[in-house]
């Protein structure tokens, strides 16, 4: 059965819906433009994000930006050295955890030091100084307060790729070695790795 011809009222309705969607997109774009950047994250692009993407960020460099502590963490696949810091920013507190690159011999030495223990152990400031030249392999940053995705976009620009996840959305910045996990338009996690790691 042929469809009845569209009347002018139908065309007006289609035009109104199109204008509504266009207006909504423009409003969302302006909201992102008006969002205040995270000033410290803008600074960290050169001091932390780019060196880590280049696989050249040392524990010393990270410690200078975010003072913290070194921990020995038991794992079934071998112990890890993790660096932890808690930073107060204008938007609230952020928790940072970085994993250091270790050679096989260093892992074996740490396994011997750890013995059969299953508890994490804080390490001394002297050990932190001794390991200061080691490179950071992974850096995770978790905001303890609500931080909008618009503020991230205002700080480092729009993502190259957006993916839907079970918990929300992931933004991917391959050049920065950065992936961002969001839920309901709020940041949940910033995950940084060397750029090369994103190619695998």
Notes on the structure:
It is elongated, with a radius of gyration of 23 Å. 37% of the residues lie in helices and 28% in strands. The protein has one domain. It contains 6 helices and 9 strands, in the order αααβββαβαβαββββ. With 200 residues, the chain is an alpha+beta fold. A hairpin with a 4-residue loop joins β7 (169-173) and β8. The longest helix has 27 residues, at 8-34. The model has no long low-confidence stretch (mean pLDDT 87). A 9-stranded antiparallel sheet has the order 4-1-2-3-5-9-8-7-6.
Please, what is the oligomeric state? single chain
Shape: elongated
| N- to C-terminal distance | 54 Å
Please provide the ordered H/E string of secondary-structure elements: HHHEEEHEHEHEEEE
Mean pLDDT: 87
Largest beta sheet, briefly? 9 strands, antiparallel
Helix content: 25-40%
Strand order of the largest sheet: 4-1-2-3-5-9-8-7-6
Q: What is the strand and helix layout of this fold?
A:
Elements: H1 8-34, H2 39-53, H3 59-65, E1 69-73, E2 80-89, E3 92-100, H4 104-114, E4 121-122, H5 125-130, E5 136-143, H6 149-156, E6 161-164, E7 169-173, E8 178-183, E9 186-192
Antiparallel strand pairs: 1-2, 1-4, 2-3, 3-5, 5-9, 6-7, 7-8, 8-9
